[in-house]
Specification:
- By secondary structure, the chain is of the alpha+beta class.
- Helices cover 69% and strands 14% of the residues.
- The chain has a domain of 128 residues: Histidine kinase-like ATPase, C-terminal domain (Heat Shock Protein 90).
- A 5-stranded mixed sheet has the order 1-2-3-5-4.
- α1 packs across α7, α4 packs parallel to α5 and α5 runs antiparallel to α7.
- The longest helix has 95 residues.
């Protein structure tokens, strides 16, 4: 009888211990699952926040490109058209003033100025919305851009384009073109460089844009604290193509390497 009571006590202790461990395991499992779900929710919130920021950035860039197109069309059609009409009027005036050398010289000089203004309007409108990019692709647009700079004889641009087997969508092509435009503009205005090297290389599904100039370089430690609008525009466009950007400058010269995936 006493042995049966002892057995019952052990059985009761065993059952109590088992229930305790089951409860403890349930609490641990609940805490683990709760933390896991919390982490998933935090990750989803971060992803949603990142997506919202990218969507907002994309909308801003698209609005900017739309405004560029509108301004380029107005510049080309309105200003360009009026300048062409003014040049035609001067040509008529020049024909009527053949017996007045001073008037003929004045109209000839005015025509030269108007021709220069028409060229400027055409160049600015092409920079705003490059027709070669839409018609012939990124390689042609880069070649045209570098040719304009090379024609000045002040800076030599060397290009190395190796994306013939890669298909980039229109948004990525436009983003790369604007980035290259901004980099070239920064070099021309600030770097005092005599040469620029520009390469677009493919490695599998990854693309690299390598930009180097032989100018006076940058103080990168100061640039991290304050970046001008040009660098902010570059980094915003890099975000849109989900890429990474790295600046390098040791003494003289500046290098910018941008990497992204075709996917």
């Amino acid at each position: 009888m006493e042995g049966t009571k002892t057995l019952d006590i052990y059985l009761l202790l065993f059952c109590g211990t088992l229930i305790f461990f089951m409860l403890a395991a349930s609490v641990v499992a609940f805490i683990y699952l709760y933390r896991k779900r919390l982490r998933q929710q935090q990750t989803a919130m971060r992803d949603m926040h990142t997506k919202l920021k990218l969507d907002l950035l994309q909308s801003n860039m698209e609005a900017l490109e739309t405004e560029r197109q509108r301004f380029a069309a107005d510049l080309h059609d309105e200003i360009g058209g009026k300048l062409a009409t003014l040049r035609l009027t001067l040509s008529q005036l020049q024909k009527q003033g053949n017996d007045n050398p001073q008037l003929e010289q004045l109209t000839a000089r005015s025509k030269e100025i108007i021709d220069a203004m028409i060229g400027t309007v055409r160049r600015v409108s092409h920079n705003l919305v490059p027709p070669s990019l839409e018609l012939f692709g990124l390689a042609s647009a880069i070649e045209e851009l570098s040719s304009w700079i090379n024609s000045s004889s002040a800076i030599t641009v060397t290009t190395d384009y190796r994306l013939e087997q890669v298909i980039l969508d229109q948004k990525k092509q436009l983003a790369l073109y604007r980035i290259i435009q901004e980099l070239l503009s920064n070099t021309i205005r600030h770097a005092q460089a005599s040469h620029i090297y520009l390469a677009l290389l493919a490695g599998g599904r990854d693309i690299q844009l390598i930009y180097k100039d032989g100018g006076r370089g940058l103080n990168l430690s100061q640039m991290h604290g304050f970046k001008g609008l040009g660098f902010k525009n570059i980094e915003n466009r890099v975000k849109l193509i989900r890429g990474k950007v790295d600046y390098r400058s040791e003494g003289k010269g500046f290098e910018c390497v941008i990497s992204f995936s075709v996917n």
